[in-house]
């Protein structure tokens, strides 16, 4: 049997509990203990949790109050993003020893295309093992990896043997791997979509594969085509070394809940200033402004407006954000405000599916 599309050798490297692991490495007294980065106040939010803390249900984006309630022994530490960036840079330098096709997703994870690599090593599995060992030797931190024919499968595979492990999905294993996959493991399938799929009798990749492209289009719109192809192992997205951001934003969480729009204007001005700085640094502008509002009960609301022209200066950003703020009454007191800019002038149209495919035998050395 052949897979009728181009095969690549893709590695997804994901650091294990990165922020918390850096803190435990730099402060040996924290090793083996439940640690949360951030969230150290009643208003705080957890940025990352060590594996010891995760056993108690502590996870990122959780309020510090709930995290402490779940794990009374939890140790909160302040985030040190400069330090995390420093370690991330060390890790990235290791990636570039093997390939220039590196696509960072964040400080702690990246895709690598090693189909052709600087070491001349035909085995992506061995390369991943070498990279993980070098990361450990250089930083004292562990990483996990997934290896397969495309980015989607590699990313799913990197979660399988965490922490400090790796999984290879060989070309001849791809179809079975995807058929056995829980539908919730498919990227793009969130809680709401998963529940919809359950109602349609879709619980695994095999169930999904049995649905026609017309059926998926009807029930899931534009995503239908993506689901149809990805469950068949078709995901042609290349590793992009210079990844273009889809949006740029800034937000602030407040120590005291704000109950009036008047009190929020000063906060919005500060956020707009920070957003302008980030836009100037990236040398980009955008058309779609989104105001993010998180209420005291943690419910989230967004309000957006698309302008007919690109903007990047704080005055226009703030003017539109104010308009969105006054668009409708607030539902409750507010604990967080954020402004983001999308529809950027550097953004390219989504690539069309590749028209031509190459038939590659499944005997492909991984």
Enumerate the strands of the largest sheet in spatial order, edge to edge or round the barrel: 6-7-2-8-9
Low-confidence stretches: 347-362
Helix content: 25-40%
The helix/strand series, from N terminus to C terminus, equals EEHEEHHEHEEHEHEHHHHHEHEEHEE
In quaternary terms, these chains amount to single chain
Overall pLDDT metric: 89
Q: Biggest β-sheet, characterized?
A: 5 strands, mixed
Distance N to C terminus = 17 Å
CATH architecture of the largest domain: 2-Layer Sandwich
User: Based on CA inertia axes, which overall geometry fits?
Assistant: globular
Instruction: List the domain count as a whole number.
Output: 4
Rg, Cα atoms, Å:
23 Å
Strand runs, count: 14
- The chain-level structural class is alpha+beta
CATH class of the largest domain: Alpha Beta
Strand content: 15-25%
Q: What is CATH's topology name of the largest domain? A: Alpha-Beta Plaits
CATH homology superfamily of the largest domain: Reverse transcriptase/Diguanylate cyclase domain
Q: What's the tally of helices?
A: 13
How would you summarize this macromolecular structure in one to three sentences?
Helices cover 35% and strands 23% of the residues. By secondary structure, the protein is of the alpha+beta class.
Describe this structure in words.
It is globular, with a radius of gyration of 23 Å. It has 366 residues and is of the alpha+beta class. It is 35% helix and 23% strand. The strands form four sheets. The protein has a five-stranded mixed β-sheet. Strands 10-13-11-12 form a four-stranded antiparallel β-sheet. Strands 4-3-5 form a three-stranded mixed β-sheet. The two termini are 17 Å apart. Helix 4 (81-95) runs antiparallel to helix 5. It has four domains: 6-16 and 82-171, Alpha-Beta Plaits, CATH 3.30.70.270; 18-80, MutS, DNA mismatch repair protein, domain I; 174-239, Orthogonal Bundle (DNA polymerase, domain 1), CATH 1.10.150.20; 247-344, Dna Ligase, domain 1 (2-Layer Sandwich). It has helices at 18-26, 51-54, 64-70, 81-95, 124-139, 151-157, 174-180, 191-199, 205-209, 213-220, 223-230, 261-282, 314-325; strands at residues 2-3, 10-15, 35-38, 46-49, 75-77, 102-106, 109-113, 143-148, 166-168, 247-258, 286-295, 300-311, 334-344, 360-361.
């Amino acid at each position: 049997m052949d897979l009728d599309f181009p095969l690549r050798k893709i590695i997804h490297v994901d650091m294990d509990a990165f922020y918390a692991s850096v803190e435990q490495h730099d402060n040996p007294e924290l090793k083996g203990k439940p640690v949360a980065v951030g969230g150290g106040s009643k208003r705080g939010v957890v940025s990352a949790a060590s594996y010891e803390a995760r056993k108690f249900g502590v996870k990122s984006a959780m309020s510090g109050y709930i995290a402490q309630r779940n794990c009374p022994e939890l140790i909160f530490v302040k985030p040190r993003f400069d330090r995390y960036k420093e370690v991330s840079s060390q890790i990235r330098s290791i990636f570039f020893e093997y390939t220039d096709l590196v696509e960072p997703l964040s400080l702690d994870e990246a895709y690598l295309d090693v189909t052709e690599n600087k070491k001349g090593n035909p085995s992506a599995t061995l390369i991943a093992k070498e990279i993980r060992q070098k990361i450990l030797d250089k930083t004292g931190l562990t990483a996990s990896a997934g290896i397969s024919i495309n980015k989607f499968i590699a990313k799913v595979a990197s979660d399988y043997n965490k922490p400090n492990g790796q999984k290879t999905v060989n070309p001849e294993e791809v179809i079975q791997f995807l058929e056995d996959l829980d539908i919730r493991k498919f990227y793009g399938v969130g809680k709401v979509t998963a529940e919809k799929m359950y109602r349609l009798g879709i619980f695994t990749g095999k169930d999904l594969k049995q649905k026609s492209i017309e059926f998926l289009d009807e029930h899931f719109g534009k995503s239908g085509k993506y689901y149809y192809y990805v469950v068949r192992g078709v995901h042609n997205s290349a590793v992009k070394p210079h990844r273009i951001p889809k949006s740029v934003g800034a937000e602030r969480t407040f120590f005291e809940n704000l109950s009036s729009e008047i009190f929020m204007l000063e906060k919005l001005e500060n956020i707009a200033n920070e957003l302008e700085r980030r836009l100037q640094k990236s040398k980009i502008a955008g058309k779609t402004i989104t105001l993010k509002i998180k209420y005291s009960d943690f419910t989230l609301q967004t309000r957006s407006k698309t302008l007919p022209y690109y903007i990047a200066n704080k005055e226009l950003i703030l003017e539109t954000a104010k308009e969105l703020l006054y668009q409708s009454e607030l539902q409750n007191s507010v604990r967080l405000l954020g402004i983001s800019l999308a529809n950027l002038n550097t953004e390219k149209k989504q690539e069309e599916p590749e028209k031509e495919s190459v038939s590659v035998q499944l005997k492909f050395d991984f």
